[in-house]
Amino acid sequence: MDRLGGRMVMARIVGVPGEAWNGRVELRQLRYFVAVAEELHFGRAAARLQLAQPALSQSIISLERAIGVQLLRRTTRTVELTAAGRVFLDECRRALLQVGVAVQSAQRAERGEAGLLRIGYVVSASYEILPPILVAYRRRHPAVGLQLMSRSATEQVAMVLDEALSVGFVREFQGNDELDSELLVDEPLVAVLPVDHPAAGRQKARLSSLADDALLMFDRDRAPGMYDKVVSSCLDAGFTPHIVQQSSDVQSVLGLVAGGMGVTVVPASFRHLSIDGLVYRPLADVGTRIGLYAVWRKDGRTSVLDGFLEVAREHAGAVRGRSAKR
């Protein structure tokens, strides 16, 4: 066994397919062999390794016995590699290099500097909050791989639970015993109106002024938090919404508004999506805001995820500051 970073390490070398070999080889034996093979002198190799020469000689003998191959030819004056020894030297160098890479990769992952994050997000998160988070995170942790998936809130929760996502960005998270969550942004809701709507010419609209309008909504099955938030906001404004159609696709809902089929209510970040025939108007009603949450498994915290959440908090604070001024 070899002490690598203060830990005892054992390596098992697997034989060539078809050739039975059940011995064990220690990492230190590989390192000792490489030193002898490069120096071709036991005395110099022992000095290089800061090891007594008899102990080095015994280690090489044990290695040869373990693999059943003569690696060195020794005389009283010379040490030479056998043909098998030359092949073994090349493989030992590769093996030791790979062990070093593996240790460094594990250490970087422990520090949150390497690994893979699978990130889910609702469409509205991609308009304002998510892009600067990704830019900052990639700049700070360039060795971490990112996989991004646009999914509904319901799909993200299921994927986080199944460990198909490391973290999700969802609207109005409604809680789950196996998940942790954190509110990142609490932004205003805005009315989306056809350009010829009576309230389209005003700077702000009151939610109560939409009581008689047909309301177009997202499917509750896909976005329950957002659906329930809009409905509860309407009830707080004194009316029951007249929901005439639900759609799973945000562009479809906005397209129907532009076509004069009704109105809808969305987070303010949707204003980055410009479509002819409709306008966005802030709502004057108090309390018409909606949250964007990060969600992850309670048992899924890693250094990589912690690093990402740290960056997300920093940039969410800047977005909250801008949102408060609206």
Report on this structure.
Belongs to the LysR transcriptional regulatory family. InterPro entries: LysR_HTH_N (IPR000847), LysR_subst-bd (IPR005119), WH-like_DNA-bd_sf (IPR036388), WH_DNA-bd_sf (IPR036390). This is LysR family transcriptional regulator. The chain is an alpha/beta fold and 326 residues long. The protein has two domains: 109 residues, Winged helix-like DNA-binding domain superfamily/Winged helix DNA-binding domain (Arc Repressor Mutant, subunit A, Orthogonal Bundle), CATH 1.10.10.10; 212 residues, D-Maltodextrin-Binding Protein, domain 2 (3-Layer(aba) Sandwich). Helices cover 39% and strands 23% of the residues. The protein is built from nine helices and 13 strands. Strands 5, 6, 7, 8, 11, 12 and 13 form a seven-stranded mixed sheet that branches. The radius of gyration is 32 Å and the shape is rod-shaped. The N and C termini lie far apart (65 Å). 32% of the residues are buried. The N terminus is likely disordered.
Using only CA atoms, what is the Rg?
A: 32 Å
Determine the structural class based on helices, strands and strand pairing: alpha/beta
Largest sheet, in brief, is: 7 strands, mixed
From the 3D structure, determine the CATH topology of the largest domain: D-Maltodextrin-Binding Protein, domain 2
How many domains? The number is 2
- Uncertain residue ranges: 1-20
**SSE topology string:** EEHHHEEHEHEHEEEHEHEEEH
Q: What is the count of DSSP helices, taking H or I runs of 4+ residues?
A: 9
Question: Termini, distance in Å?
Answer: 65 Å
Strand content: 15-25%
